[in-house]
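Let us practice reading a record.
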Amino acid sequence: MLKNILVVVVLVAGVWLYATGERVPLPGSTPSLPDGSPRVEAGKAGVDLEEKVLPSAGVILPVRWGDLGKQMIATGVIDGEKFEQLYSSRGGLTPEMKAMLKGENNGNIKITAENSGVILNLLWALGLGSKNEILDKGPMTDKNYGGAGNFASTGGWTLAKGDPSTGLGASAMDHYSQHQFFNLTPEQQTLVEKMSKGIYRPCCGNSTYFPDCNHGMAMLGLLELMASQGVSESDMWQTALAVNSYWFPDTYLTIATYMKNNGVDWKDVSPQEMLGADYSSGQGYAKIASQVTTSGNSHSGGSGCGVDAGAPAPQRQSSGCGVAAGQPAPVAVPQKQTGCGI
């Protein structure tokens, strides 16, 4: 059952930025990918296992970004100036990230531990603004929750442009399911819906079909992007697991340790099973984590649920779902929560 409770805060801050790495195949496609265990294991063995779960060189995703960043700026889902300003105190956007934001001929997306936060935010905007029946008719519209605007994934997106004609400030709901970034076929839409119901996130107990926090909305955007470009279902599952692993590194390092302790290498796991409620929901992961002894080390990732998810490496951060997760909280706005406080 979908679970959600009323929340009382939305933290407003900046966006998380990271750099790039070298090409690495998708998890599960070669022995050079996820296999292992978290940093909880000391010494070389732990480092080796971590490299398999979170390749330091990054993972090339089977989708082209093209000019989607430019399109989102043009429609107002992203205010390009705000986006860049939020990175200015951290040295500015890298050329690669600036190209994703404003360029026209971007190739395949590459996610790394360093850039996972900014990828999260770009995909969040994409999922939020893209017209889709999941947003129009799914649980986000349940009247019991007070409307789609009362969630971390909507109220927490503070990088949109407002409507100049009204003189009002930016609102994510001005763009919620408003833009035709994709033209999915009925079969592609069915695949997105199927997979969205099977991909969970450890910051809460909901699936991507209920994208009430940034991770859910970003994953929805990624699923739509992959489906629109004809990526196979198998590759979509593998990609989703790779991306979730970078967004929630400690979670999947722990899950990988659990699997290894039970005699299963990470390269041999079923991505669909790992992304399901038994492992990747907040409740499921808690049960897994209770069976794994960790050293307390943590990893920077995209686990925060706001536009400021994360902080420049090597700092670590919380898994709250606020726009300033892991950061000072300058603003408070009533919002809903799913265990991912915004």
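A brief commentary: The beta strands are 5-6, 59-66, 106-111, 336-337.
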